Amino acid sequence: MNTMHQTLTVALDERSYPIHIGCGLLGRAELWRPHLNPKMGAVVITNTTVAPLYLDKVLATLAELGCPAFSVVLPDGEEYKSWETLNTVFDALLENRCERGTTLIALGGGVIGDLVGFAAACYQRGAPFIQVPTTLLSQVDSSVGGKTAINHPLGKNMIGAFYQPKLVLADLDTLDTLPPREMAAGMSEVIKYGLIRDPAFFSWLEQQAAGLMHRDKALLAQAVYQSCAHKAEVVARDEREAGERALLNLGHTFGHAIETGMGYGSWLHGEAVAAGTVMAALLSEQLGWLDQAAIERIKALFRRVGLPVDGPWLAATPLATAQRYLELMRHDKKVSAGILRLVLLQGIGQAVVSADANDAAILQAVQAGLAVAPSVLSVPPTQI
Amino acid sequence: MNTMHQTLTVALDERSYPIHIGCGLLGRAELWRPHLNPKMGAVVITNTTVAPLYLDKVLATLAELGCPAFSVVLPDGEEYKSWETLNTVFDALLENRCERGTTLIALGGGVIGDLVGFAAACYQRGAPFIQVPTTLLSQVDSSVGGKTAINHPLGKNMIGAFYQPKLVLADLDTLDTLPPREMAAGMSEVIKYGLIRDPAFFSWLEQQAAGLMHRDKALLAQAVYQSCAHKAEVVARDEREAGERALLNLGHTFGHAIETGMGYGSWLHGEAVAAGTVMAALLSEQLGWLDQAAIERIKALFRRVGLPVDGPWLAATPLATAQRYLELMRHDKKVSAGILRLVLLQGIGQAVVSADANDAAILQAVQAGLAVAPSVLSVPPTQI
């Protein structure tokens, strides 16, 4: 099992790159070699949680390859996906005289990957970078496709770039140390692929949920591979989200409102996406596109992997809360000419981008998707 | 004369864009129309010097086109090409709920163009932008080609992106209000094109220097057109500076050392490039590539347009100064695997990128290119 290793390619002409998925990949020097230039060196950028677990292993591999390297260890958490943290990265790169050929290696979850990718996009107008995702969420979603960004107090991922890595190395062994809550958050994006374009995968996830949450490596390998295959296919066809790629944002506009409204770091991204996906499903139901049975299947699967299905209150009443959601959603990047474009469902496995929902319908869906009591206002979501 | 209008194209496939050069262009709504989406609106970003002169004219044109717009007025100066100023732009965009389809219009010189271009590159992962350069330097160089950036205390243009505008509108009438010192600084980049690839243009500039500095519009139109034609041709062949485009950096590595060493805003970019170009010429002479007569022609032309030809001292002795230059030059983006790659001259009109010069040769060239007395340490360069 430990030699399990699959490879996918994100096909983007001269910017194509491989995704390696398997066990023990951090130490597989031959996978790193083609994507590093030992003359130029590398910097491993990680956080205080991941550094004690995997930094030495990565540095040992770089040493084996004769690639000089140093590391930058950032604080851990969505609240550090900020302007200030990005600047500390630039300071470190310049103080260490990194050149534009120095490879930036993002070792961590989605926050590290997004921030380091954006740092690489901007450093001397573009340095090479490698994604080494160590969470399920980053392995199945954020490390692939070149979306990089930092947050702004007025909106998530508002400052960023489309900038592709040279290599994605998803070592499934790093999931061994992932807290249960983050494991669940990652499943949110796995389930997303089933919901938007693969009903058979959704059914398979319903069958294998327990085994996946017990971190059966063979099952995880299948789930990560299938998710990355979907992502790679969509990104290759629509790198800059002119069309189809927007489907990958199912639940994200509602979810970003939750994340921003609750303050970064309170709800995990995957948790917010789960509750947001339920709201998108309820809105789809209002439009007559989705039946009650599908809604129940979606909620049941989220619940089985330990994800919240009810959104938090952001104000004293459900209506005021819904109005706050709508206000926050209007800041979303998918807004065009003032019109909210949402990803909705016409069935399990069939997502569409739609501007059909008016404000009244959105307010109603948010209220229908809220927790019954306001007590969740300041309480973290259910954990498994 | 006032209807004089020429157009060039920067040929980059689907990212191609026109450069309009002429008089009265700010008010020519038909030139703007194809590149704006009135539904999405626009924001004009300028500085405190340019705003009172040209902001109303641009806003009037946008109003004529039915394009809602607001403006952001930044402080003027290279020292504001910073992280902090960039953040104030993002704050304004988000507070005004700008979408990713909002067009950012850079109205000003090189600092505004570089900073606004980088803001556009990053805002919601890429918003459209238009360059309206109002200085000679930005009309002939920085507004064309998509190099955008901000400075870092440890190096100029260290944080940035390659990001092309949708349109460059070089209105020669805006040069009427340009201070003489900035006019001279712009000539530095005009002369550069002659030096690196067009000996006939260099000779023409020698003949027309007086008329250009008196701002004869027909001569300026020729100089700006010829400069933009060179830039557009080079950029179309090598957008991301993998090769030929590096030649456009003649004098810039030495020049950046002057700008950084003296503190941003003390020497103008064009002034530093002039003194830096003389150092590059002296180094070329040491290598036996350039004769004394060519050096004298270069210096004479710089002097005739009011540019400094001697570099400032950055330390108490010429040797210590040269060592400081070298240290600053090592931070340059053109450094690769620790080797300084410099643009040198094998004749007037013939530049090459070279790693042939060792540290000793560079130290010697810097010292040969310094002002005779240390008094210039804190004195601005000669003005016309």
Automatic annotation (TrEMBL), chains A, B:
* Domain named 3-dehydroquinate synthase N-terminal: residues: 72-184
Function per UniProt: Catalyzes the conversion of 3-deoxy-D-arabino-heptulosonate 7-phosphate (DAHP) to dehydroquinate (DHQ).
Please identify the protein, giving its name as recorded: 3-dehydroquinate synthase
Specify which residues bind Zn(2+) according to the UniProt entry for this protein.
E189, H252, H269
Q: Which InterPro entries match?
A: Dehydroquinate_synthase (IPR050071), DHQ_synth_AroB (IPR016037), DHQ_synth_fam (IPR030963), DHQS/DOIS_N (IPR030960), DHQS_C (IPR056179)
Q: Which residues form the 3-dehydroquinate synthase C-terminal domain?
A: 186-335
Protein EC: 4.2.3.4
Write down the required cofactor(s): Co(2+); Zn(2+); NAD(+)
Q: Could you read off the lineage of the organism from its UniProt record? A: Bacteria, Pseudomonadati, Pseudomonadota, Betaproteobacteria, Rhodocyclales
User: Per the record, what are the reactions this protein catalyses?
Assistant: 7-phospho-2-dehydro-3-deoxy-D-arabino-heptonate = 3-dehydroquinate + phosphate
User: Which cell locations does it reside in?
Assistant: Cytoplasm
Q: Which UniProt keywords apply?
A: Amino-acid biosynthesis, Aromatic amino acid biosynthesis, Cobalt, Cytoplasm, Lyase, Metal-binding, NAD, Nucleotide-binding, Zinc
Question: Which top EC class is named for this enzyme in its record?
Answer: lyase
Entry GO MF terms: 3-dehydroquinate synthase activity; metal ion binding; nucleotide binding
Q: Name one GO biological process term.
A: chorismate biosynthetic process
Question: What Gene Ontology terms describe where this protein resides (cellular component)?
Answer: cytoplasm
